[in-house]
């Protein structure tokens, strides 16, 4: 049997692919690999899964650890990105290399308990396209919880997300949906938006949110705002419609104010000119105009980068047992 035939046979045996974007998790990775193996063994899938670890150009020694784990375990595959592209783009890199019929996406910090993967697989086997998870006891700081609530409202308005569905980064997806998702080759990937573009056959299960095993989370407030902008401007024209509505509302308000001032001037000729109110009005209208121009600039900028072929990700190397490149 040739090496190519062996690779085909190996891929055909894979039922579950688990994709994990990796960033600053060097000490956690061995424990993550062991926990995933235990979960798959409990589900009698120890010989039928793959764990794809995507190193998003982590500044620590995560890639060295991934390479070592891939050399020790046949089910571990490593993907090394040339630079930091962000969690969703790294996830897309992993999705483009899966072999399983069901694909699970999870974080690298063990806040997502691998032991519930079996329940997610069952949900997909029951006929759903996607199974998300809901946290019963979130271990996130207050600002992140409030941000999630805002993101939940925004994704409902902009993406048509079903009410009550929490877009967790811990989810299981049917392979057919993954094949549609990876057709998107733009530089600003938002996996949940792509999923909602493909299907509404979605369910969710409750899980206990674990504390991060070591270190601190990698998502800052700035990262969360960037993700929200990606969601709002890459998958919806609602912000542009909002800008148009604001422009119409301000024009109408201006007409009303002009009429009021004109009437007051006729009734009270002695009334002095309102310098303060004039400046306040100018500043307000100017601020709204700047906001609207910024929104338009976001759309134009993303279109420009897409047309100029800005890459979604670039791979520096792949590694798995007995094969390293």
Automatic annotation (TrEMBL):
The chain crosses the membrane at residues 240-263, 275-300. Its EC number is 2.4.1.83. GO terms for biological process: lipopolysaccharide biosynthetic process. One of its GO terms (cellular component) is plasma membrane. This is Dolichol-phosphate mannosyltransferase. Gene3D superfamilies: Spore Coat Polysaccharide Biosynthesis Protein SpsA, Chain A. InterPro entries: Glyco_trans_2-like, Glycosyltransferase_2, Nucleotide-diphossugar_trans. PANTHER family: UNDECAPRENYL-PHOSPHATE 4-DEOXY-4-FORMAMIDO-L-ARABINOSE TRANSFERASE (PTHR48090:SF3), UNDECAPRENYL-PHOSPHATE 4-DEOXY-4-FORMAMIDO-L-ARABINOSE TRANSFERASE-RELATED (PTHR48090). The keyword Transmembrane applies. It comes from the Bacteria. Residues 17-180 form the Glycosyltransferase 2-like domain. One of its GO terms (molecular function) is dolichyl-phosphate beta-D-mannosyltransferase activity. It comes from Mariprofundus micogutta. Keywords: Cell membrane, Glycosyltransferase, Lipopolysaccharide biosynthesis, Membrane, Transferase, Transmembrane, Transmembrane helix.
């Amino acid at each position: 049997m040739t090496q190519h035939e062996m690779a085909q046979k190996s891929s055909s045996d894979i039922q579950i692919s688990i994709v994990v974007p990796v960033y600053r998790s060097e000490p956690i990775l061995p424990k993550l690999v062991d926990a995933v193996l235990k979960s798959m063994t409990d589900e009698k899938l120890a010989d039928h899964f793959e764990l794809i670890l995507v190193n998003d150009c982590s500044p620590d020694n995560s890639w060295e650890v991934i390479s070592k784990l891939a050399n020790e375990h046949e089910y571990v595959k490593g993907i090394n990105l040339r630079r930091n592209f962000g969690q969703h783009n790294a996830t897309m890199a992993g999705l483009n290399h899966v072999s399983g019929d069901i694909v699970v996406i999870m974080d690298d910090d063990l806040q997502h308990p691998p032991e519930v993967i079996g329940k997610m697989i069952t949900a997909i086997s029951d006929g759903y396209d996607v199974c998300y998870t809901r946290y019963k006891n979130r271990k996130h700081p207050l600002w992140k919880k409030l941000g999630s609530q805002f993101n939940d409202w925004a994704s409902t308005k902009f993406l048509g997300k079903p009410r009550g569905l929490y877009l967790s980064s811990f989810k299981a997806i049917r392979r057919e949906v993954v094949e549609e998702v990876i057709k998107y080759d733009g530089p600003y990937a938002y996996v949940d938006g792509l999923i909602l573009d493909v299907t509404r056959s979605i369910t969710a299960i409750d899980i206990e949110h674990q504390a991060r095993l070591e270190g601190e989370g990698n998502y800052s407030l700035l990262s969360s705002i960037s993700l929200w902008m990606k969601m709002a401007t890459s998958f919806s024209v609602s912000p542009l419609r909002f800008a148009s509505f604001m422009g119409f509302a301000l024009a109408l308000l201006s007409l009303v104010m002009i009429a009021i001032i004109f009437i007051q001037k006729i009734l009270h000729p002695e009334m002095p000119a309102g310098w303060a109110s004039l400046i306040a009005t100018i500043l307000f209208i100017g601020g709204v105009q700047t906001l609207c121009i910024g929104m338009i600039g976001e759309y134009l900028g993303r279109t420009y980068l897409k047309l100029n072929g800005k890459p979604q990700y670039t791979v520096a190397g792949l590694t798995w047992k007995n094969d390293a490149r």
